[in-house]
Task: inverse folding
C-alpha cells in the first residue's frame, strides 16, 4: 500500500511538471526554468530570484536585473539579494543562455533576423516579451499587487535595458537603469562610421519603426538613468565592442554613454518633447557589476568587501532605492538663487549647483512657463550644459496636465529647480494652485535649491510685481515710465519663497526704481529688493543673502506707517556684500 501511495504521488508530481507553485516564487532564494511564454517556449529562460522572508509578497516592489555578456544570472542576483532582504523588494534575474540567445537575440532583442534592418521579426517573437511574461507569471502565482517593475542592467544588460524601453513603449517599467553599455541605439536617422558607412539598427533607428514622434515621446518620458563608471575606459579587453559603428559612438564606454545621453537630450529638445532621463557617474568604478551596484567598497585582509551599509547615491542601488543626498538628509530648507535677468555669470551658476554637490551631481529641472518658446528653452538648457552640468531636464507639458502622475514624477530626484525668464504673470498663473507647485515647495523645505531669473525671480515674492504702471501717458515707455505713486503697479500673488520681500529684476538697466517705490507705497510692511542684470542674491535658509555677480542690489526698507509721510532706508550692495 505504501509503495502504491508513493507511486501515485510521483505520478502527480511529474504530471504537473515545473509549474507547481511550491517550486516557483517561494520566499527566499529560488531558481526555475521558464517556458511560459508560448511564442518562445522553445527558447527557455533560466530564472534566479530572491523574495524576502518577511512581509507580504503582494506588497513588495519588484526589480528585474539584466546580466552581462557572460550570462551570469546568479551573479547578478547575488549582487542584489542582501539589499532585497533588508529593504523588502523582490529581485528577478532572468538568464538568457547563449545556446538559445545569441548577441542579436539578447543585446539587440531579437527584433531583426540579423544585425541589419532588412527583416523585422513579428513583435511576439522579440526577446523582450520574456520579461513581460515573467512579470505576469509572478503576479499570477504570488498575488502581487505590483503595477510596474523596475529594471537594472549592466554591460550587455545595459544594452538590453535601453533597447527594451525604446522598442516596448507599453512595457510596465517604472524606473530603469542602463549601466556601462558597450553600444547604444542612438535616436537618429543613421550613425556614420569612420569609413563613411551609415549604420542603422542596432546603432541607430534608421529604417526602423521606432523613430516616430509618438514612440520617441514615450521613450524620452521614461524614468531612465544612464549609469556610467568613470573608470570604465579600458579598450584592450576582449569584451569591449570594437565594431566600427560602436567606435563611432565613442572611444570608451564612458564616452559612449555620455554621447548617447547628450544625443537623446538634443533630439528631445529639437522635437519639443519632455525629457526625463538622467546621467549619473559612479566615481572610480570600472566595468564591474558589484561596483556599479554599490558604488564603493572597503579592503579587508587584501580582499574587496561590499556591504549593504556602504553604498553611494551614484550607483545602482542608490539610484533606484537610496535617498537623495539632498532631499531627505537636509535639516533645513534649500537655498534660493534669485537672478536679476540678463547674463548668468559663472559665479552665479556656481551658486545654483553648489548645494547639490556640483555639476556632476546636480539634477536640474527647468520650468519654462514664463516663456514656452522652444528656442528659448534650448538656450537655457545650453546655459547649464556649457557650464558642465550633465543632468538637465525640463517640463513642457500643457499646463492642464501638470498634475498628472507622469509629470509630477519628473520632480523625483531633482535637486535644482530653475524658473526661466519671460512673463511672470504667465508663470504664476500656470503653476498657482497646482500639486506641481506644492511639490516644489515641499522639495524646497527638504533642501532642494530653487533658482530663477527675470520673471523666475519676480515669482519668488508673495507680493509679486506682475506688470508695469497701470496708467502710462501716450508716448511713454511702460517699462521705464518714472512716476512714483500708490496704486500704480500691479501686485499679484507670487510663489512666496521669499514671502516678506518684494523682488524687482532688471533693476538698473531698465530703470525700475520708480516702480519698486510705487509697489512699496502699496505694501509698506515689507522691504523691496531690486536686483540688476548679471547679478543675483544667494538666499540662505535663515533668509539672509549674499550678492553674487557683476552689478548691484538695492534694498529699500519702508520706515513709516500708513498715513505718515513715506520714509525709506536705502542700501546699495555689491558682490560679496551680505544682508540680514
Result:
Amino acid at each position: 500500500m505504501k509503495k502504491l501511495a508513493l507511486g501515485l504521488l510521483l505520478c502527480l508530481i511529474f504530471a504537473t511538471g515545473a509549474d507547481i507553485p511550491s517550486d516557483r516564487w517561494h520566499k527566499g532564494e529560488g531558481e526555475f526554468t521558464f517556458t511560459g511564454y508560448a511564442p518562445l517556449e522553445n527558447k527557455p529562460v533560466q530564472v534566479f530570484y530572491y523574495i524576502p522572508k518577511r512581509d507580504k509578497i503582494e506588497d513588495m516592489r519588484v526589480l528585474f536585473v539584466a546580466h552581462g555578456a557572460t550570462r551570469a544570472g546568479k551573479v547578478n542576483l547575488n549582487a542584489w539579494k542582501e539589499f532585497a532582504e533588508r529593504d523588502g523588494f523582490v529581485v528577478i534575474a532572468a538568464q538568457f543562455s547563449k545556446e538559445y540567445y545569441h548577441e542579436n537575440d539578447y543585446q539587440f532583442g531579437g527584433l531583426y533576423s540579423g544585425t541589419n534592418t532588412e527583416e523585422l521579426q513579428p513583435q511576439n517573437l522579440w526577446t523582450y516579451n520574456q520579461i513581460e511574461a515573467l512579470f505576469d507569471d509572478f503576479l499570477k502565482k504570488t498575488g502581487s499587487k505590483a503595477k510596474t517593475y523596475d529594471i537594472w542592467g549592466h554591460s550587455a544588460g545595459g544594452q538590453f535595458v535601453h533597447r527594451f524601453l525604446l522598442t516596448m513603449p507599453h512595457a510596465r517599467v517604472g524606473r530603469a537603469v542602463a549601466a556601462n553599455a558597450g553600444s547604444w541605439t542612438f535616436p537618429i536617422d543613421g550613425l556614420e562610421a569612420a569609413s563613411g558607412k551609415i549604420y542603422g539598427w542596432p546603432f541607430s533607428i534608421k529604417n526602423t519603426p521606432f523613430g516616430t514622434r509618438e514612440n520617441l515621446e514615450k521613450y524620452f518620458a521614461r524614468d531612465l538613468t544612464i549609469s556610467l563608471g568613470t573608470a570604465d575606459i579600458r579598450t584592450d579587453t576582449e569584451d569591449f565592442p570594437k565594431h566600427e559603428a560602436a567606435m563611432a559612438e565613442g572611444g570608451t564606454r564612458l564616452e559612449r554613454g555620455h554621447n548617447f545621453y547628450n544625443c537623446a537630450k538634443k533630439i528631445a529638445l529639437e522635437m519639443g518633447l519632455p525629457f526625463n532621463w538622467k546621467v549619473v557617474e559612479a566615481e572610480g568604478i570600472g566595468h564591474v557589476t558589484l561596483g556599479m551596484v554599490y558604488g564603493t567598497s572597503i579592503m579587508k585582509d587584501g580582499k574587496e568587501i561590499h556591504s549593504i551599509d556602504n553604498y553611494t547615491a551614484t550607483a545602482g542601488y542608490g539610484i533606484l532605492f537610496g535617498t537623495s543626498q539632498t532631499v531627505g538628509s537636509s535639516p533645513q530648507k534649500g537655498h534660493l538663487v534669485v537672478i536679476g535677468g540678463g547674463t548668468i555669470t559663472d559665479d552665479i551658476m556656481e551658486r545654483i549647483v553648489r548645494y547639490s554637490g556640483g555639476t556632476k551631481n546636480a539634477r536640474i529641472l527647468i520650468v519654462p512657463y514664463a516663456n514656452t518658446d522652444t528656442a528659448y528653452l534650448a538656450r537655457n538648457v545650453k546655459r547649464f550644459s556649457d557650464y558642465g552640468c550633465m543632468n538637465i531636464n525640463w517640463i513642457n507639458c500643457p499646463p492642464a496636465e501638470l498634475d498628472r502622475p507622469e509629470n509630477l514624477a519628473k520632480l523625483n530626484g531633482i535637486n535644482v529647480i530653475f524658473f526661466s525668464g519671460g512673463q511672470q504673470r504667465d508663470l504664476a498663473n500656470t503653476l498657482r494652485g497646482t500639486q506641481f507647485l506644492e511639490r516644489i515647495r515641499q522639495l524646497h523645505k527638504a533642501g532642494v535649491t530653487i533658482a530663477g531669473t527675470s520673471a523666475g525671480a519676480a515669482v519668488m515674492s508673495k507680493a509679486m510685481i506682475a506688470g508695469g504702471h497701470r496708467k502710462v501717458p501716450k508716448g511713454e515707455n511702460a517699462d521705464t515710465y518714472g512716476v512714483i505713486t500708490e496704486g500704480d503697479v500691479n501686485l499679484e500673488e507670487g510663489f512666496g519663497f521669499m514671502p516678506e520681500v518684494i523682488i524687482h529684476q532688471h533693476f538698473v538697466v531698465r530703470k525700475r526704481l520708480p516702480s519698486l517705490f510705487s509697489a512699496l507705497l502699496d505694501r509698506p510692511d515689507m522691504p523691496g529688493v531690486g536686483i540688476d542684470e548679471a547679478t543675483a542674491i544667494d538666499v540662505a535658509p535663515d533668509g539672509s543673502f549674499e550678492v553674487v555677480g557683476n552689478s548691484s542690489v538695492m534694498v529699500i526698507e519702508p520706515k513709516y506707517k500708513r498715513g505718515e509721510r513715506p520714509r525709506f532706508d536705502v542700501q546699495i550692495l555689491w558682490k560679496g556684500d551680505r544682508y540680514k
Remarks:
- The two ends are 93 Å apart (CA to CA).
